[in-house]
Amino acid sequence: MDRNQATGLILFAAVILIYSIFFASGPEVQPEEEVSTNELVSSVEEPTMDQIPMEESGSDTLSQEKIEKYGVLAPLTQGEEELITLENELIRLDISTKGASIKNVILKEYKDWEGKDLALLDDVSSSMVNTLNTTRGPVQIEDFYFTPEVTSETTEEGKEVTLLTLKAETESGSLIHQFSLESESYQVKKSFEINRFQGVFTQNTISLDWKDQARAHERDLAESRRKTQINFYTEGGSYDNLGVGESLETNVPEEPVKWIGFSQRFFTAGIIADQAFDNVTLAQSTPTDSLFVRNMEAQLDIPINDGKADYQFYFGPDKYKVLKSVTEGFEKNVDMGYFFVSWVNKYIIVNLFSFLEKYFNNYGVIIILIVLIIKLALSPLTYKSYIGMAKMRVIKPEIDELKEKYGDDPTKMQQEQMKLFSQLGVSPISGCLPLLLQMPFLFAMFFFFPNAIELRQESFLWATDLSTYDEFIKLPFTIPFYGSHVSLFTLLMTVSQIIYTHFNNQLTTATGPMKNLGYIMPVMFMFILNSYPAGLSFYYFVSNVVTFGQQALIKLSVDDQKIRQKVEENKVKNANKKKSKFQQRLEEAMKAADANRKK
């Protein structure tokens, strides 16, 4: 569900719920004159072709064309390509000795929907092209061959770090790439260093053009495309994205960018700056090929300070706690919802899942336990809501009398109702307000379950994957706004909601069309949620069953006669009670409105 869909759905649900409750219940660039001999831009002129050492230019395979294009860098274009593997317990990277390019990234813990290795990047659908500006024009580092060396070291915390160093050198200088991968980490630290080559390079930046055709790793292609987009976070601390539209979309951030994420539904490939990226241009579009969910591209400049550029990559799952530990704002690659519901997911649901995962490996059971824990925590609000509705129920005879007496005069009817509520010590919103306080938990689930990688490929009962719809029956035709399948969890949720609405109507004073209004929302949600994650429908089904049980227990413990007795006591107590200033002002406003209506 994208944000536009969620907004419409939340507004629709909120209106129906409230209506039914009330009536049915960049680093600074140094001046050129101050550039030292350690920086890339040097006042020393690049050696001419005649000055290139014989051992660098005398090779039979080193053409004159290459010498003219690359100058002293020409010998680096000779060599043989080899793939070097850098891996830990979580990820595996294949890095080419030609250009020191990342060719493949495999996430070891996960499989795609067909059961194959999950390749977050591969050499067919993705590429990273690094460019340096020289006195002879731009050259791509991918044209150069490097010599690899793999070493390891141990951090102070006792974690093993694997280092892959790729070096290309001539007598004029050397280019060095280094990849660093710590055990049990999805982060790959990267550095690029230029030693000497005085007078060759003309800028203190390395330009990166990263293109990726994100492959379809999930069965539901439409939902995957809705959840795949480019996210970015600026140096000033603001987050933005390119949205989820079908057409080509581009964005040129006005300020330097701290990180960029090629974010899919459950996984992110991101690049994080040590300082900030300059001259960033982002673009994305939707391909026609069903093998891919989104075409994404990021062009950026990485600053080189004292001959060295440092940055890092993230290749891993969209787990909120994992992303939050990467860098500031990186957890925003997981959509936790709008501000009024995101706190529920960030501080309650995520931690509950994390805690329960330590003791249970069945996610259906975990969902049931989360429902029980939340319902138990909110039970005081549920009790107050029930008592509020019970008070309205016991004074129904008085309300009916007012309807018979003032039914033709709505303004007078409202005035007399307010007077009655004041005398009896009953508030018409006493049953509504506790339910409204529970709404953030209700709507938070619309954002959590569609983005919860914890549910990915986890089965429960007949559902083979709780992160997508449970196809209980495959239809030979497509029903508009519904789909070509039947989700049994969604049907169960709908039936349970209708039963709950029927039970709830017995506790309220609603009559006529207002009494039937509560049946509309479950039917609407049946169409909406039929293609949404089975875990979401299952959560609402269990929640309805538990709520029904709660109210049945409360009903057994609440005596309507005692509530009526309390109301009568309030009636005697408030017989001579003066109207509050608020009541007086409200009545005056209603009278004025009625007078204007009659004119």
From TrEMBL:
Stretches assigned to the Membrane insertase YidC/Oxa/ALB C-terminal domain: 363-555
Compartment(s) of residence: Cell inner membrane; Cell membrane
Topology with respect to the bilayer: Multi-pass membrane protein
TM helices/strands, residue ranges: 6-24, 337-356, 362-383, 420-449, 479-500, 520-542
Main location as per UniProt: membrane
Domain Membrane insertase YidC N-terminal positions: 84-348
A biological-process GO annotation: protein transport
Molecular function terms, GO-annotated: membrane insertase activity
UniProt xrefs under Gene3D superfamilies: 2.70.98.90
This protein's GO CC annotations: plasma membrane
Similarity comment text for this entry: Belongs to the OXA1/ALB3/YidC family. Type 1 subfamily.
Entry-linked NCBIfam families: PRK01318.2-3 (NF002356), yidC_nterm (TIGR03593), yidC_oxa1_cterm (TIGR03592)
Assembly and interaction partners: Interacts with the Sec translocase complex via SecD. Specifically interacts with transmembrane segments of nascent integral membrane proteins during membrane integration.
Name of the protein described by the UniProt record: Membrane protein insertase YidC
Species for this entry: Algoriphagus kandeliae
